[in-house]
Amino acid sequence: MTRSPVTPLPSPDERRRLRAAASLTRRQLAERVGVRPETVRAWESGRSTPRGRNREAYAKLLAGLAEGAAADGTRESVPVRQEEAAAVVTTMRLEKPGGDGRLGAVAPEPSAFAQAPPPSSASRAERLTPAQAFDALYSFCAPALVRQTYLLTGRRALARESVERAFQLAWDRWPEVARDPDPAGWVRAAAYEWALSPWHRYRRRHRQPEPPPPDEDDRALLETLLRLPPPYRRTLLLYDGLGLGLPETAAETEASTRATAGRLTYARETVAARLPELSDPDELHRRLAELAFTGRLRAAEPPVVRGGSERRARFWARAAVAFTVALIGTTALTLRTAPTGYEPPVPPGETVRGVPPRVAPGPLSEDDRELRDRLREELPRGPERLAPQAR
Question: Which domain holds residue 197?
Fold first, then answer.
């Protein structure tokens, strides 16, 4: 009697990566295997290993997900590889904690202008047009940046909008961004600023809450993050999520290193108080990575973003021209209708001292009535001229 070969089981990190690549939650994968979501979490973290029928079903499911990912990867091209690298490297990559319990530093994000490994990659990068360089940066950073921004806001639409606005601003200032030592950091800071703007609360479509993640643990973690003040939430994401150092986090959040350390400590204590299992920074990173991959967060295509930036630039240019023309027309009309000579205004009356006030006429006396009657009896042209006579 021969036994059927056992399907190989990948490592815990690969299990989690395959599930995230297929956009499956732990609850959905657990329903397919027939176990609880907590069991899937333990398998992916390496705390336990599946056995028996569950192991075979889990291994076959992961093998199917790997084959699907390989089928999608047949269209390998430079932008696609950069997108996958961005999702793995720039989203949530941390190294193991150091001996002092502090998170170790991670390798910097690969440059968006770096092409394939051949030796001629440097010369090829120099020959890139501005549009090609922008598309490379967008394809490399946008998918991961959308997921990061979702952790800051808890809104999928706002996350996509923030990333698009940040890249539109980068395209408007492309010479400045292209010469920046860290163009990915420049765009990330712009996206975070737009996502955390307090003016979004007055927008009608942002007044209604979005559907929460389907998993209960993910909902609890997202609610805990959103309860943190925006600067603390951003500090926690940059340090424990992206793995930036404390000085780099302080520089990006425009705070002192001491204030950044205080924000990080407060954020960690708040998360650990509500979710004690996340007191370990490494476990917190894992959960943040899983939460970032919740749902289908897709970024727009690079030409669409560039086109939106150009349309917005044309709109503001036309608005400025229209305003200038209206201002010139108003000035010309004012000059046409304005008086040509100076007319001094009539000064207000002044009170003169010593002059009795004017009074209304009262009733006539007897002498006044006689004089009035005598004047009425005279000729219309007055009395006849009297000539003096000599005596």
Answer: 76-114+128-334
- Residue 66 Cα to chain centre, angstroms: 35
How many whole angstroms separate alpha carbon 228 and alpha carbon 200? Answer: 17
Rounded to whole angstroms, how far apart are CA atoms 316 and 319?
5
| Cα 125 from Cα 107, distance rounded (Å) | 21
- In this model, does residue 313 exceed pLDDT 60? yes
- The helix/strand/coil state of 294 is coil
Last residue of one domain, picked from the residues 283, 315, 334: 334
Helices 302-337 & 156-172 angle (0-180, nearest 10): 70
- Measured between alpha carbons, how far is 284 from 296 in angstroms, rounded to an integer? 22
Cα(77)–Cα(95) distance, integer angstroms: 28
What is the per-residue pLDDT for 52?
A: 82
Give me 310's structure tokens.
């150009």
Contact at 8 Å (CB) between 292 and 94?
no
DSSP state of 385: P
In the chain, the N- to C-terminal Cα span, in Å, equals: 182
To the question of pTM greater than 0.85 for the whole model, the response is no
3-state class of 173 per DSSP? coil
**Over the stretch 74-90, which tens digit does the pLDDT of each residue have?**
443 333 334 433 333 33
Domain assignment present for 354? no
Residue 217, domain member (yes or no): yes
Residue 68 vs residue 180, higher pLDDT: 180
Give the helix ranges, DSSP H, for the chain: 12-21, 26-33, 37-45, 52-72, 78-85, 121-126, 130-153, 156-172, 174-179, 183-195, 216-227, 230-236, 246-252, 257-274, 281-292, 302-337, 366-377
Q: How many domains does the chain have?
A: 2
CA distance 138 to 75: 19
Average pLDDT over residues 117-129: 49
CA-based Rg of the chain, rounded to a whole angstrom?
Answer: 41
- What does the pLDDT read at residue 98? 32
Mean pLDDT value of segment 2-24: 76
CA distance 263 to 254: 13
Which amino acid appears at position 32 of this protein?
R
Torsion of CA 177, 117, 109, 222, to 10 degrees: 110
